[in-house]
Amino acid sequence: MSQQQLRSHLLNARASLSAAERDDAARQVGEHLRNLPELQQSCTLGSYFSVRAELPTHAINQHLMDAQHQLALPILHPILAGHLLFLQLSETTQWTHNKYGIPEPELNAQHIVPLQQMQVLLVPLVGFDRSGNRMGMGGGFYDRTLSAWHKGHIKNLLPIGLALDCQLVDELPKNPWDVPLPMVITPAKTWDFRS
Ligand SMILES: Nc1ncnc2c1ncn2[C@@H]1O[C@H](COP(=O)(O)OP(=O)(O)OP(=O)(O)O)[C@@H](O)[C@H]1O
Ligand SMILES: [Mg+2]
Question: Which residue range(s) make up the domain with 132?
Answer without folding.
Answer: 3-192
